[in-house]
Specification:
The chain is of the alpha/beta class and 212 residues long. It has 8 helices and 9 strands. The strands form 2 sheets. It has a 7-stranded mixed β-sheet with strand order 5-6-4-3-7-8-9. A two-stranded antiparallel ribbon has the order 1-2. α1 packs across α4.
Length: 212
């Protein structure tokens, strides 16, 4: 049963945005903020913010607003950011390497423990605190270290086969950059399909609306 049964996916998807804005407020040494002030920063209505946070019990006080530090901590707990789920990355090409090198996994609830690729020329290359391993070692690695999540930076034709194998090896969640929609085949597994091209096309539409 979900920890927050009945909370809509749209509310859950807004939580990381709340977290990001609150982190920025904390860095600027802001300790208290009203729903009206937060709504102005985030381009949401104050009513929407109150409704979203009330799904988890509500964290503000009338006449006071929200304690930034406390709200940031509560949203972090809801998102599970302190858990450090063991994760692996499959595909150490340009995109995979960029993600491995620059993503702050530890602050986002994950711990990257392995990187794999089939390209023999990449095997043994150091990346952060790890080295790239041969994909043929994947099964033994998973049986030994029991990773819980996988980042897929592989071509679309290989995605379904590798996802099947990883699920069999115990993977429960995918951050998927493969352009293959894994949610179609694995409704009981947590999947975030990332389509960078979709975002760029959305920007194209918005620019077209401004310029035409």
């Amino acid at each position: 049963m979900p920890r927050y049964e009945g909370v809509s996916p749209s509310v859950i998807r807004r939580l990381p945005r709340y977290y990001r804005f609150l982190e920025d407020l904390q860095r600027r040494d802001v300790h208290r903020i009203s729903s009206r002030e937060l709504s102005s920063l985030m381009n949401l209505t104050a009513s929407q913010i109150r409704q979203d946070l009330n799904c988890f019990g509500g964290f503000g006080q009338q006449g006071y607003g929200y304690n930034v530090d406390a709200l940031l901590s509560e949203i972090g707990n809801i998102l599970g950011l302190s858990r450090e789920y063991r994760s692996i990355l499959i595909g150490a090409g340009n995109l995979g390497l960029a993600i491995a090198k620059h993503m702050s996994f530890e602050s986002k609830g994950f711990n990257l423990i392995g990187i794999f690729d089939k390209n023999k020329e990449l095997v043994g290359t150091p990346v952060r605190h790890l080295v790239i391993s041969d994909i043929n070692r994947l099964e033994n690695f998973c049986k030994t270290f029991s990773p819980q999540a996988a980042i897929l930076c592989i071509p679309k034709p290989a995605a379904q086969e590798i996802a099947d194998k990883l699920i069999h090896l115990g993977i429960k969640g995918f951050w998927n950059f493969s352009h293959y929609d894994l949610t179609m085949d694995y409704p009981d597994i947590a999947v975030e399909n990332v389509h960078l091209g979709d975002s760029l096309m959305t920007l194209c539409y918005q620019v077209s609306e401004i310029l035409e």
